[in-house]
Every structure is written in structure tokens, then in C-alpha cells.
Amino acid sequence: MTRLFFVLRIVAALAIGAAVVGQIITSLRYWQLQGLTDIPFRLTNFFSFFTIESNILATVVLVMAIGLTLLKKSPRWFSVLRAVATTFMVTTGIVYNLLLRGIELEQGSTLGWSNEILHLWGPLYLLVDWLFAPGRHRLDWKHIGTIVAFPIVWAVYTLVRGAVTYDPVLDGGWYPYPFLNPETSANGYLSVAFYVILIAAVIGLVGAGVIRISRLRRGPGAAHAIDDEPDSGDRTAAAA
Length: 240
Fold this sequence. Notes:
Elements: H1 2-33, H2 39-46, H3 50-71, H4 76-100, H5 112-132, H6 143-164, H7 189-214, H8 232-239
């Protein structure tokens, strides 16, 4: 099992990393063809997409997993990081395929195969990896706070930056996703607030599911998980 996921993680890291790089190259060419010269602004926009940030984190986590496998180590903190990356990627897949599939976003002309890896196959692999790969620790429910911390910061950053930036192509503020733009939403900030709460709920539910999976003593991957918490009998004995 360890050898299988060692190979799968290499393939997944290369595929996701290539998808991010491929989209960057495609976007740069697209901006050049459009005669745009504000490349730093466009690149900042590119890296402000939650999708891109999630996939970069997933690539880093997979590379770290490969290194830790070679070192034969599986620290508990890394399971927390894996849980964060898995939650973000699964949320990316859910939100994109329910709300955004078929809508070309503003990162430039979309690269087809890259788009599918970033929004479908990457999220699916991270979920499979969490379910079945060896070395998953039993996590505490308190780690929900760790999982939702970055999305909260990202949402605040996105709304503030959108309000203070001006994109001459759009003739208005720049927002990574249409449903976060109060200027074009049907009910302005009320609509935006609805979607922010909805996405926060999805992230919370997915994060709770990821943690719940880690706490299963039976089921997918449980035989290869690391249970470093004593069971109730051990705790009773230790207290006696």
C-alpha cells in the first residue's frame, strides 16, 4: 500500500503542478495577445483564485508526503496539513462543478486539460489519498478551526481587494468568481453574503467529514491509519 501511494503521489504532484504551470503560461500568452501590460496585477489576480491556492497547497503536500515516505516518518502535524489540503481541494471540486462549470473565469483563456485536473481529478485524488493512503493520524475536532482559518482570511482579502482595485478590462473591481462580485450580483452584497455563508458551510461540512474519516476505527484506510490516542479502557487504566 505504501509503495502504491508513493507512486500515485508522484504522478498526482506532477499532474497538478503541471496543470498550474500550464495555466500560468496560457494566461500570460492570453494577456499578451490582449495587449495587456499590467502583468503584476494580472499575476496577483491569478494567485488570488482559491482554486489555484488550493492546488498549489495540494502539490506541496504531496511532495512533502513523498519526502516523509522516504524518511519513513509520519508526524501528526502533517496529517493536519493533509486534512486542510484535502478539505480545500474537495471544496474546490464541489463549488466549481456545481456553480462554475461552463463559465470561463478571468484568469485568461482556459487550458482544457489543466482545468479538469485543477477542478476535478486533483480534488478526487486528494480525497482518495485521504481515504486510503497510509499514515493518517486520528485528528481532534478542534482542528476544524485550523481548516476554516484560511478560507475566512481569503474571503475578507477577496472582498476588500475587489472593492479597492480597478480592472480596466472589466471596468470595475476585480473578483475571482462572479458570485463574489457585488457589482454584478442581483442583490449586491446580500447575494455575496449568501454565497460566502454557503461556501463557509461547505468548507465546514467537508472539513468535518475529513476529520470524521480520520477518527474511524473501521472502514476505508483504517487499517493503515495511525491511532495515537488511547482507547477508553486505556484512559480508565491510566486514571486509576
